[in-house]
Amino acid sequence: MNSGARDPAGDDRAARERIREIGIDEARAIVAGGGAWLDVREREEVVAGAIADAVWIARGLLELNADRSLPDKTRPVVVYCAAGRRSLLAALTLRELGYERVYSLAGGLDAWKRAGQPVVSLAGGDPVFAPRYHRHLLIDEIGERGQRALSASRVLLIGLGGLGSPAALYLCAAGVGHLGLVDDDIVDESNLQRQVIHDTTTVGLKKVESARLALRRLNPLVEVTAHAERFDETNAMRLLSQYDLVVDGCDNFTTRYLVNDACVLAGKPNFYGSVFRFDGQVSVFCAPGGPCYRCLHPEPPPLGASPACAEVGVLGVLPGIIGTLQAAEVIKWIVGAKESLVGRLLVVDALATVFRTIGIERSPTCPACGDAPTIRDLRATNAAACGAR
Predict the structure, then answer these.
(1) What pairs with residue 39 in β-bridges?
(2) For the chain, how far is it from start to end, CA to CA, in angstroms?
(3) pTM metric for this prediction
(4) What is the DSSP letter of 378?
(5) pLDDT, tens digit, 9 for 90 and up, residues 341-351
(6) Which of 71, 202, 307, 388 could bond 159 through an S-S bridge, CB–CB 3.0 to 4.6 Å?
């Protein structure tokens, strides 16, 4: 016999010697007095039904996630599983991790249900617990609360080109509840080197329709609205009013300044990205108390002073990097993560493979978001009607 092998019977004996099993009435009293339920079953079991307000950590992940999900080790914890054995072993693990008052629910959820106690059923249509979101549910910074926030959010993507393509794909995969797509362009074969949401079969289609089809295939739980129109000063405020935040995927200064000014006026955060040859930038503008794009660049360059991507080119994978970072910032914002790029500009040099950040402060003299702004409507941006490409 291998002397290093674990003895399951020995584990059970140790657990029963050190962990007290309690009945339903005592467990309810402990939780009512400030304790916590801890469900240590697998995700599939939790979806079928759980005790309301229970913390969920699968037994095999206790050592990794207990400190973050249950930070107060003096708080009483009532652990349960299906029938009571896993909860005993999990409670023993918690005791070894330093938790002082740990109990196991005798008979587990089976006994709870036989006693006629209420169970929250998550099966049959709660999209938050769809298998596709399992990895999000395991992250404390997201979890069920964050996934529900994603599901309730509405994000407007302006431009379905190199930046909008990866941003849309990852926001859709993450479970953002409603995506709005704005673009009036048509898919061209020259787009396919970097605009990964489109493919050979959709050349000739409107970009918003091509993207809508791709997103539908990726995640049918997400609602997608296609706005096949040019983003300009006549529709900007109408479009922004329907969404919570904006992803700037445009590729020209006229639209970029229009997006910025519209976000300032509407009070919507602007998740900015840009690419040029091997260089890219990402930031979050127009957040409460943070800078806007005009704090960095008060006025656009003279017409023709800065060549477009179509004239100088761009490394095909670079928009994928930048657009994915934009999506990451959106997800962090929605779930309430503490860190973001508000007040910082992330600069990417893909040729040298160097990432650096530059601090940006809100400018009191900014014409859009300063103390005495001069831009009070979109006519002041001098933005001619412009495609969001």
Answers:
(1) 56, 80
(2) 69
(3) 0.75
(4) G
(5) 999 999 999 99
(6) 388
